[in-house]
Structure formats: structure tokens, C-alpha cells
Amino acid sequence: MRIVVIGATGVLGKQVIPRLLERGHHVRAVARKSDQAAKLQQLGAEPSLGDILDHASMEKAVTGCEVVLHLATAIPKPGGTQDWAPNDRIRREGTQNLLTACQRAGVRRYVQQSIAFLYRDQAGVLADETTPLQPNPFLQSTLDMEALVQASPLDWCILRGGFFYGSGTFEDAWRDAARQGTLQLPGDGNDRISLIHAVDMGRATVLAAEKAPAHSIYNVVDDQPVTYKELFQHLATLIDGPAPAPGGPAFLPSFACRNDRLKTTLGWSPAYPTYRSGLA
Q1: Which residue, 14, 67, 95, 194, has fewest beta-carbon neighbours within 10 Å?
Q2: pLDDT tens digits, residue range 254-275?
Q3: Which of 99, 101, 91, 79 is nearest to 154 (CA)?
Q4: Does the global pTM surpass 0.90?
Q5: What is the pLDDT at residue 251?
Q6: Distance CA 100, CA 70 (A)
Q7: pLDDT tens readout for residues 53-74
Q8: CA-based nearest residue to 154, from 230, 69, 220
Q9: SS in 3 state form for the chain?
Q10: Contact at 8 Å (CB) between 37 and 31?
Q11: C-alpha to C-alpha distance for 187 and 194, rounded to whole angstroms
Q12: Tens digit of each residue's pLDDT (9 = 90 or more) over 218-250
């Protein structure tokens, strides 16, 4: 199939593109800078210069393709300026640009990366795709993005990913903090988190591009939700660092999800079923 990847140079795009290529798909990879486009071409993709906030470049990018993957984000780096406004614009304006471009170009299948932090946590219960979503000003742009996708006439699929870890993610900052003895638990460390290794999110995205049913939603998380206390203590042990202290900022709501639907419908299973193998 001819598949276009928006967000080709991000953490997820870097996992998805080589997997699509090795499965024989023609991949058009959208980049904002010419040096990025040149690298994508060297890796075997057809480069396309564009910006999801620029409607004309999105129309050019999707023309002639059968599947569109919206993997674009602008997540602030740990320790840097926490400016989420660019990510909000991508979620709202960028998504609308891309959906409109797809409709005009006659593209039918559309895969949207989303997040599983949207669920209301229920003690002792794992959220599935029917669990009510939790209103949260910090996450409102993601709710708006999903609403835009679901209101479109395309054969859309939404992938609600867990918290990413792996190379190039927040895991790098966690490991650095563990080495320096500054890794802190959010609050008392008892909030839950459903993780997904970037490799496993990439594998799920490829399957969705190939065969996700129209109007489908999947949680893409590993097999075992974990508390921050368990997760960070395990990481500190691997690094030979001190036990993480409580009292750090809680930057996400507590959430814990199940992945049964993805396994049953698309035949996916995580290469890293839990943080233990994923952090090894």
C-alpha cells in the first residue's frame, strides 16, 4: 500500500517507517526540514517537505496515498520549557488540516495516534475502550482531536497509547535522574500508569495501517499496569541508584488500561509485556 506518515521524524515515526518498508509498503514520509527529508530518503522512504499546520503541504503529502498515519506531536523535552501550546495546535488545527486534505484527496483509511491518559481511573479496575474519558484541561486538545476524527467520514482508527518508554523518550531522563540520585516519585508513588514501549506502539501502528476496521479504537498498552513506586524502584535498582524519594510533581492523572481488544482484533501482542523486560 501507499502510506503517508505525518510525524515521520518523531519517536513513533522512527519505529513505524522501517517496519512499513520491510513489509513492502511504499512510504511517503513528511518532514519539516530538508536535512530530515534527505535522511528519510536514504532510509528508503519517499520524502515530502511539509508541516501539518500548513494545509497546502498536507494536500500535497496525502495525494495518491491509500493510508494516512497522523503521528505528529510536539511534546516538550524533560527539563526544558514546558510549552504545550505547539502540541495543542497540532492536535486541533493540524488534525483538521489533515482530515480535510484526506477527504479532498479521496484517502479513506486514517490512523490517529492518541493517548490512554484520558480514562478516569477506577481503583482495582482496568479501563477498556468503553470506559468514560476524564475531562482535564491539560488533555483537552487530545479530546478535541479525537472528536474531530470521529466526526469525519473517513475509515478512521484511533490508537490510545500508554506512556511511552524506550530510547528517545522520558525513560532517558528517568535513567539520568536515577544515576544522579534525583529520581523522585510523583506524590507518594501509588498512582498507576500503563506503559507502552515505543517498539510495541510502532508494531501496533503498522497493524492498524494494514487492517484496522473502520471506526475502531484500541488501547495500546502493555500487559501489566504498574505504580510509580514499583517502576522507579525497579529502575533505580538497575542503575544501582538510591531508592526514589516521594514528593515529586504528579504530571499525569493515575490511569491503568487493558489491551484485550487490540490483541483479539489485530493479533497484536507486546514484545515487552511489562516494564521488567522493557527496561532490561
Answers
A1: 14
A2: 999 999 999 999 999 999 999 9
A3: 99
A4: yes
A5: 79
A6: 13
A7: 999 999 999 999 999 999 999 8
A8: 69
A9: CEEEEECCCCHHHHHHHHHHHHCCCEEEEEECCHHHHHHHHHCCCEEEECCCCCHHHHHHHHCCCCEEEECCCCCCCCCCCCCCHHHHHHHHHHHHHHHHHHHHHCCCEEEEEEEHHHECCECCECECCCCCECCCHHHHHHHHHHHHHHHCCCEEEEEEECEEECCCCHHHHHHHHHHHCCCEEECCCCCEECEEEHHHHHHHHHHHHHHCCCCEEEEECCCCCEEHHHHHHHHHHHHCCCCCEEEECCCCCCCCECCHHHHHHHCCCCCCCCHHHHCC
A10: yes
A11: 17
A12: 999 999 999 999 999 999 999 999 999 999 998
194: which 3 cell numbers? 500503563
- Under 8 Å CB-to-CB from 237, ≥6 apart: which residues? none
Q: What are 114's three cell numbers?
A: 492518541
Say what angle helices 198-211 and 11-22 make with each other, to 10 degrees: 50
Beta pairing partners, 110: 68, 156
* CATH number, domain 2-165+196-223+257-271: 3.40.50.720
φ/ψ (deg, to 5) at 37: -60, -40
* C-alpha cell recorded at residue 243: 531508592
Place of cell 513528511: 30
- Per the document, the length of the chain is 280
List of residues 6+ apart from 20 with CB closer than 8 A: 3, 5, 27, 206, 209
Which triple of cell numbers denotes residue 245? 524519594
Q: What is the CA radius of gyration of the chain?
A: 19
